[in-house]
Amino acid sequence: MSYPKEELKKYVLNYFKNKGITVEDIAKEFCSFEGKYSKDLKVSDGVKIINNKVLSDKDILQTIAVGIQLDKLAEKNMLDEPLLSIIKKDLPQFGTDELFGIYIASHFTTAGIANYGYLDQTKNGIAKKLDVSQDHGKHSTVNTFLDDIISSIIASASGYFIHKKD
């Protein structure tokens, strides 16, 4: 049995919407990131790449959905210890969220992976807002996986764009 990809994409996009994130927001960051190398890049180009290339891949959507579920379960205190505290506090020693980001970006060549590493380290824009809004276990907001997912979507779009240009 195969799960409909469009339902999975709708689930992901609805979660993003609930967090105040749109594909256009992500595309703007992609254009800002990639625009220094491609002056004619438009937000609409980013939206198309993100929708038609990155968020059209079932493996990527499934990975994003698992990350979303882990953040949601941690927000509701529905994970066992010590995993609950590790995810809620987004401990620096916890690298599984980065592995999700690397896996997503790896679908778009080594450029996607390299860009993800850079974006994960610099934490700008949406990823920074998500990271800063997370209260690291004090209340309920958990974005441990989501900030990495957003960075990996931008990196993936960039990896696709770089290789499409060649």
UniProtKB/TrEMBL annotation:
Pfam families: PgpA (PF04608). Residues 54-162 form the YutG/PgpA domain. Coiled coil: none annotated. GO terms for biological process: lipid metabolic process. One of its GO terms (molecular function) is phosphatidylglycerophosphatase activity. This is YutG/PgpA domain-containing protein.
